[in-house]
C-alpha cells in the first residue's frame, strides 16, 4: 500500500505541474499548420525522390552499349521519378527500349511519358519522365510543352503533373542552350507564373540542365530574375554535377510554398554513380558528362491545391 500511495502522489504532482504550465502559456501545444520554420521529415516509405539526369546524347549508339545501359537503368531505379534529358533519336525508340531495360530488374514497374522532339536545329532532343508506378501517378492529360510564342527557349520546357500520396506536384523540365543560359533561366519565372495560373498549382518544381555555371552563367550573381528571394536553389553552388569538371550545371529550384511544406530539408544531393558503382573515369564519361541531381519530398502532408 505504501508503494502505491507514493506513486499516486507523484502522478498527481506531475499532472498538476502539466496543467499549470499549459494554463500559464509556458508551453504552446497549438499547431495551426499554416507556417513551419523547417520542413517535416517523414519516416521511410512516406517520401519520394525527384531527380533530373542529362544522359549525354542518349540515342542508338549509347543504348547499344549493354554495360552503359546497366548503369543507366540501375541509376534510374534509385529514384521515384526522373526527368531524362538529351534523348536524341529520330526513330523515337530509345525511351521505350530504355523502359524495357529498367523493368528487367527486380522491383516495381516503371513507366514514362515523353515530349515531342524539340530544338531549333536538326539536332533535336526529347524529354521524358520515367517514374515508379507504385509510388507516383501521372495525372492523365497534364503534360505539355510550354507555348513559347516568343521563341525564348532553344528547347521549350516540358511540363507534367503527378501525384504521390497526398503530394500533388508539377514538374517543369528544361535543358537550356548554353550560350543563352542566363536569358533562358531568367524567363523560367514567366513559365512558372504561366504554369501556376494554368492549373492553380502551388507545388511547381523547376529542374534540369540549366547550364548554370562556368562561362555560361555567373552562379554567384543575384541579378537573374530566378535568383529572387522566393526561389530556392536546393542544388546549391557547391555541388559538382558534371563528371569532368566541378561545375554545377544541373539544378532543382523550388518556391517558398514547396520548400516550407513538402521539401525535406537538406535532402537534395548529387548521385555520384561512378563512386557508387566503382567506375573508372573513362567508363564514367561513356555513361554521361552529367550526374543526376535529386531532392526528396514528404508525401503525407495534406495538399489543398
Distinctive features:
7-stranded mixed sheet, alpha+beta, 27% helix, 6-stranded mixed sheet, 305 residues, Deoxyribonuclease I, Chain A, globular
- Distance N terminus to C terminus? 59 Å
* Class from helix and strand fractions: alpha+beta
CATH architecture field of the largest domain: 4-Layer Sandwich
Question: What is the CATH superfamily of the largest domain?
Answer: Endonuclease/exonuclease/phosphatase
Which band does the percent of strand residues land in? Answer: 15-25%
**CATH topology heading of the largest domain:** Deoxyribonuclease I, Chain A
Overall mean confidence score, pLDDT: 89
Number of domains: 2
Give the helices and strands as they follow along the chain: HEHHEHEEEEEEHEEEHEHHE
Q: Give the overall form.
A: globular
Major sheet attributes: 7 strands, mixed
- Low confidence ranges: 1-43
Describe, in plain words, how this protein is organized in 3D.
With 305 residues, the protein is of the alpha+beta class. It folds into 2 domains: 1-30; 47-298, Endonuclease/exonuclease/phosphatase (Deoxyribonuclease I, Chain A). The protein is built from 8 helices and 13 strands. It has helices spanning 2-23, 60-63, 66-76, 94-103, 181-199, 256-259, 273-277, 281-287; strands at residues 47-58, 81-87, 110-114, 126-132, 137-138, 144-145, 158-164, 167-175, 204-209, 231-233, 250-255, 269-270, 293-298. Helix 3 (66-76) packs across helix 4 (94-103). The longest helix is centred in the first third of the chain and has 22 residues, at 2-23. Mean pLDDT is 89; it is low at 1-43.
Amino acid at each position: 500500500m505504501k508503494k502505491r500511495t507514493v506513486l499516486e502522489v507523484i502522478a498527481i504532482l506531475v499532472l498538476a505541474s502539466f496543467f499549470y504550465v499549459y494554463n500559464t502559456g509556458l508551453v504552446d501545444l497549438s499547431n495551426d499548420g499554416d507556417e513551419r520554420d523547417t520542413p517535416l521529415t517523414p519516416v521511410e516509405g512516406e517520401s519520394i525522390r525527384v531527380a533530373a539526369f542529362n544522359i549525354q546524347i542518349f540515342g542508338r549508339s549509347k543504348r547499344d552499349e549493354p554495360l552503359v545501359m546497366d548503369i543507366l537503368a540501375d541509376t534510374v531505379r534509385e529514384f521515384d521519378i526522373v526527368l531524362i534529358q538529351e534523348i536524341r533519336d529520330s526513330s523515337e525508340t530509345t525511351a521505350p527500349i530504355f523502359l524495357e531495360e529498367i523493368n528487367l530488374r527486380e522491383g516495381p514497374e516503371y513507366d514514362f511519358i515523353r515530349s515531342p522532339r524539340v530544338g531549333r536545329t536538326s539536332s533535336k532532343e526529347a524529354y521524358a519522365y520515367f517514374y515508379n508506378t507504385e509510388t507516383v501517378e501521372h495525372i492523365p492529360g497534364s503534360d505539355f510543352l510550354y507555348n513559347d510564342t516568343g521563341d525564348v527557349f532553344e528547347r521549350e520546357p516540358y511540363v507534367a503533373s503527378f501525384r504521390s500520396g497526398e503530394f500533388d506536384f508539377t514538374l517543369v523540365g528544361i535543358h537550356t542552350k548554353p550560350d543563352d543560359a542566363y536569358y533562358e533561366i531568367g524567363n523560367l519565372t514567366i513559365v512558372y507564373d504561366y504554369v501556376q495560373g494554368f492549373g492553380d498549382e502551388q507545388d511547381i518544381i523547376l529542374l534540369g540542365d540549366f547550364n548554370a555555371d562556368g562561362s555560361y552563367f555567373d552562379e554567384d550573381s543575384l541579378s537573374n530574375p530566378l535568383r529572387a528571394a522566393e526561389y530556392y536553389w536546393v542544388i546549391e553552388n557547391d555541388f559538382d554535377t558534371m563528371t569532368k569538371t566541378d561545375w554545377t550545371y544541373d539544378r532543382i529550384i523550388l518556391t517558398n510554398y514547396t520548400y516550407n511544406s513538402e521539401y525535406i530539408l537538406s535532402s537534395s544531393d548529387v548521385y555520384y554513380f561512378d563512386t557508387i558503382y566503382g567506375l573508372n573515369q573513362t567508363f564514367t564519361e561513356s555513361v554521361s558528362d552529367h550526374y543526376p541531381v535529386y531532392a526528396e519530398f514528404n508525401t503525407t502532408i495534406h495538399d489543398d491545391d
